[in-house]
Amino acid sequence: VRSRPTDTTDMVCGYCSTGCSLKVHLKDGEAVNLSPNPDYPVNLGMACPKGWEALTVLDSPDRATTPLRKNASGRLEPVDWDVAASTFVDRFRAIQQQHGPDSVAFLSTGQMPTEEMAFLGAFAKFGMGLLHGDGNTRQCMATSVVAYKQAFGFDAPPYTYQDFEDSDTIVLIGSNLCLAHPIMWERVMRNPNDPRIVVVDPRMTETAMNATQHLAIAPKSDQSLLYGVARILIEKGWIDRDFIDAHTNDFDAFAEFVQPFTLDRVTQETGLAADAIEEFARTIHKGRRVSFWWTMGVNQSYQGVRTAQAIINLALMTGNIGCPGTGANSITGQCNAMGSRLFSNTTNLLGGHDFANAEHRQKIAGILGIPETVIPTENSWAYNEIMEGILRGRICGLWVICTNPAHSWINQNLARDILDRLDFLVVQDMYHSTETAREADLVLPAAAWGEKEGTFINSERRIGVLKKVHRAPGQALSDFNIFRLLASYWGCENMFRNWTSPEAVFQILKQCSAGQPCDITGIHDYRMIDERGGIQWPYSSQVPDDRQQRVLFEDGKFYHPDQRAKFLFEEPRPLSEAPGREFDFILLTGRGSASQWHTQTRTKNSAVLRKLYPEHPFVEVNPADARRLGIRPNDWITVRSQRGQMRAMAFLTPAVSPGQVFIPMHYEETNRLTDAVFDPYSKQPSYKACAVQLVTA
Ligand code: SF4
């Protein structure tokens, strides 16, 4: 306790997509401590260690407190904002003049409030004339976005967290909910129906340890398993034919497609016993309210979209959608991944619109009062295409906001080589010490969560409010004010004359959402969001308050023009990099602790969180493999792939199957090993499985 508080305000947490509400206790308007909000419908008085420590990481010596510019000897040195903004404009303009407007790109984040994302996307694309900009949501949610759009007609996760408590059968695929979304897992634990919990995951994760049935499939064989289960459901007649006929397309083609996925084939491809697969199908059939959930184990795959759609297919064919306790439910990663999906102006035009659609461009131009001609007529390159663009010399300037690709991007050695090739790299971040900021030509110091205002949209489509409860250090500015400043130096401030505050931008974004599935025109202002304990989209002004939807698709109407959902399917492909003689293990990566967040940029600044997690890298090895290779507990070994290597301490555990090892994603070295392959539809990187060898010497 820093000092005795005199006031309290509520705001949403800024780490994961759960979107818990925290009560921040104030003295003279400044936060002194916090506690979980017992009255918020998301977290019901709970928070994970990251939430409890959210204020601590703001007071770090690593905070960027002044703009920094690289000098002639390659060192970053402090400059004032005038020099920083002038340098930003001069260098990017010079690159655009020499190589064309598209030769500068930006990479943003699912960590910023919606209003800031929208400002960034609008300034970059309409003001600076950039075509290419993407977010780190490409690394977590792109697969679900595409899967939903193709299947439902819009990127619309249909559920609410109440479904965790209403289901009698919960199927978790590629999701270690217990660590990655601990409060959602607590909601599962509160389910009064004694639900059956099925976990599909190659590892015996903390979630799998608590499951009724754990299906420890061979890595990346989930698509075959799901098709095999669909085949059993069809064969036994365990499907909802009325729902299928009334609300879906292409089921008969799907039923024919899954015929070759016999038990023999699926047992061979997944490594599971036939009776375990049949039991899984029977569990789905017996459930009255079955909910299917997935996260990064599915999304971060070279065949993520079709795997996600194989899950959606199971929900559709059994009629488990549109009712409490059901759904094909993607759990997002970051606190504002959903805001990024709808309002970042990267792959969608503001409000889930389409850059290629002339009517959409006209609508948005009218709302913003800008010429239609400044709106690009095509989509941005995806993150990986921007990186390839740098490699090919097509992108020469990059603006990185609130993300850390030098740590987090797949095949790190190549990623760092790519970033080194840039003529000019700007990093805008709350810390000057990130792996990417250390390589920058210009660092812009940004205010953090708790030092600015705006809204986040969580996994269940709930909009929550973020508030300023802490003073940003030194000259750091909110990202919102940095964008205003840069727009003014760029000479396009008139375009943003109405973008005076985050709440003013929220009002503009409301207009952009009008008539879309994500319509939020019925929300008056931030105060209303606060008073209601967050508000889920859609919340249209055209719908009476008591008829606003909680679970989507209650009426069986989807967002395709014919209002029917689609069955989508494709032949599964083998592992993108199978183990062989030399690289004979499969590396699995993922979250290692509820106390750590992604690249540890923030969480490593909390002494409490550091104590909850080993600071040195570790690798989980099956005891049988360890015996064969002479590895003892806590031995330091080298893990090597075709792309790089790292040292890690061996942790012997049967949680990983023989022939597999697991390393958490939080360590800087982990992505030296991963292989840069991508889902063809979503362009999401396939972080989860590649071939490695263990070297004991
Ligand atoms: Fe914050 Fe997520 Fe933890 Fe909730 S579960 S406190 S939103 S990090």
UniProtKB/TrEMBL annotation:
- Leader sequence range is none
EC assignment: 1.7.99.4
Q: Which organism is it from?
A: Maioricimonas rarisocia
Which keywords annotate this record?
4Fe-4S, Iron, Iron-sulfur, Metal-binding, Oxidoreductase
Domain of life, per lineage: Bacteria
Q: Give the main EC class.
A: oxidoreductase
Q: Which SUPFAM superfamilies match?
A: ADC-like, Formate dehydrogenase/DMSO reductase, domains 1-3
* Start and end residues of each 4Fe-4S Mo/W bis-MGD-type domain: 6-62
| Molecular functions (GO terms) | 4 iron, 4 sulfur cluster binding; metal ion binding; molybdopterin cofactor binding; oxidoreductase activity
Its GO biological process terms?
A: cellular respiration
Q: Which Pfam families match?
A: Molybdop_Fe4S4, Molybdopterin, Molydop_binding
Q: Which GO terms describe its cellular component?
A: membrane
> Gene3D superfamilies given for it?
2.40.40.20, 3.40.50.740, ADC-like domains, Dimethylsulfoxide Reductase, domain 2
Q: Which residues form a coiled coil?
A: none
Name assigned to this protein? Nitrate reductase
